[in-house]
Amino acid sequence: MHYDPIKKSLGDVFNRTPWLRRLFYHLLDLLLLRTWHVHRELRAWSKGRTQEPLTILDAGSGYGQYTYWLAGQSPKWEILAVDVKEEQVADSNRFFREIGRTNAQFAVQDLVLYQQPNTFDLALSVDVMEHILEDVEVFKNIHASLKDGGMLLISTPSDQGGSDVHSDGETSFIEEHVRDGYNIHEIQQKLRTAGFERIEAQYSYGEPGQISWRLSMKYPIQMLGASKWFFLLLPFYYLVTFPFCLLLNWLDANTKHESGTGLIVKAWK
Fold first, then answer.
1. Where residue 98 sits, what CATH number does that domain have?
2. Total-model pTM
3. What are the Methyltransferase type domain coordinates in residue numbering (predicted)?
């Protein structure tokens, strides 16, 4: 299934007013399990650092919801959010100007080429690397762009069923993915090749998370892919499923998983 047209349709709906976009971000924070895991890691990283003038790279910013969250944690943090999609970058810059978040800026950049040596204290890459074939080049660029001691945080599908692929004969649920998911040892080796020395990787999307993902993302996306008229049914669908998804997300984010369809990876320069 091609996910980008559905994402564009959602963006068109929620970009109509700043209030709607804020609502959209809050809904994504609640529904997307990856956000629960990423926010947990970001809170741990930022503990005691909100008064420091830090510089952050959102590498593949998408809708901009992680930049929005980070920009709200401290006015002393400067966030550069980059993406290859010009329209999304322009929309995000306009929205952030409208709400007065002056410590964040969006720019069009290709992560395979982009490098800003010794600039960032933190780099964030959430569900981006599965879209990029030249992943080691991106890791090298981010490593070069981090300051000494800087951290890269990655959320990406694993090879344990990520992208909803569970056997050799299946293809990715999201057709824009260039890989179905990373082996946990493979991504660590690629990060070492790029220059990172200290690396921590763990599974996300265990059993609770996989059920939540199907309820909160897969089935609604399939419905929207079949017809845009399902937009009218989504509020009623989520009215029923939303409480279950919240509970499942909480369980997944607060449990250690021996295996899972997602990976959370931290690497330090």
1. 3.40.50.150
2. 0.88
3. 57-152
